[in-house]
Amino acid sequence: GCRGRAWLFDIPALTATRPAQEALAAALGVLFSSPRLLKLGFGLAADLRELRSAHPCFSNCTPSAVTPSLDISHHWGTQQHGEVGRVPGGRGAG
Fold it and tell me: Which of 9, 24, 38, 51 is 20 to 30 Å apart from 17, CA to CA?
């Protein structure tokens, strides 16, 4: 099964040829729309927008089509003061 696994895809390398683009778009379409796989991203909507812009074969990869998903940028660094983007001891932390 997929439990406890994560995948990273080198999209530019995997879309070097037209047949590769079509195969990857089909495969990722299945993965992106699977209700059994959580899609996790940081700025996920922007990433999907960039993906569609750079690779038209991913035109169906919209935020509403990629479900279930969690954009951790909305949760990253949330502290007791409600500040987003600050990590204790990190750069810019006061």
Answer: 38
Which amino acid makes up residue 54?
A
pTM over 0.70? The answer is no
Q: Contact at 8 Å (CB) between 40 and 70?
A: yes
Whole-angstrom distance, CA of residue 42 vs CA of residue 17? 28
pLDDT value at residue 15:
84
Give yes or no for a contact between 18 and 56, defined as CB atoms under 8 angstroms apart.
no
Beta bridge partners of 58: none
Question: What is the per-residue DSSP string for 62-85?
Answer: -TTTS-SEEEGGGTTT--TT--SS
User: How is residue 25 annotated by DSSP?
Assistant: H
Query: Comparing C-alpha atoms, which of 71, 50, 48, 70 is closest to residue 61?
Result: 48
